[in-house]
Amino acid sequence: MLEERLVVLGLEVKVVRKRIKNMYLRVRRTGEVEVSAAPRVERKMIESFIVSKWSWVQAKRNQALLSLEKQLQADEIFYFGQRVTIKRHPAKKISVERGEETLHFFGPSTYDDERVVLWIKNWMFCELQQKIEQLVNAYWPYFHGKGCAPVEIKYRQMTATWGVCRPQRGTITFNKNLIHQPDAFIEYVVVHELSHLVEANHSARFYQVVELLLPEWKMYDKQKISF
Predict the structure, then answer these.
(1) pLDDT for 30-62, tens place per residue?
(2) Whole-structure pTM value
(3) Top-level class of domain 76-221
(4) CB within 8 A of 86, min separation 6: which ones?
(5) Domain boundaries, the chain
(6) Cβ-Cβ contacts under 8 Å for 1 (sequence gap 6 or more)
(7) Per the database record, which ranges form the YgjP-like metallopeptidase domain (predicted)?
């Protein structure tokens, strides 16, 4: 089974090549769009197939975003790929602490659920920023050696892709929803986007760079959780 990526109407789509007769289109709970097609099917045909289903794709992606938001309204959420329980504790000073399978929120008992969720989301976002910063710094020597200029790291809530690299602008934008994914998948996404600094498209040369930096990238990619 082979995998590749293509961009349709600004949306990054995962293409899985299989020995099948028909094409199949699905939208994962993360908002990722995936198409299964036979190896002989041309990319233009796949693009046309996606465009013909565009209204359906957009509707499913919107549902996926709402589903992810609702996770934070429940007592259980995914934090770096692990299902954890949110527990509230009365306290004057507001803070969030991580247990083995629990996120502990300390704060006024007068805080409603919406306010608690906001604090936890902000705390989780800071944790994600720290992790991605560490990963970018760890892999940066390779790109520095290639003459790449430093990039600005941004974050945004996205349903179509996990990251967007714009070499000409010197920016890489990561999806805030990565906080729900395992460490291995986050590392793959960081390597994937950084690799676009030397190879802009998803060519064979691009995946050579990815594999050089992360030989087990395919296994890391498969660690992704579909909600």
Answers:
(1) 678 899 999 999 999 999 999 999 999 988 888
(2) 0.71
(3) alpha beta
(4) 75, 76, 77, 102, 103, 105, 116, 120
(5) 2-71, 76-221
(6) 16, 17, 18
(7) 21-222
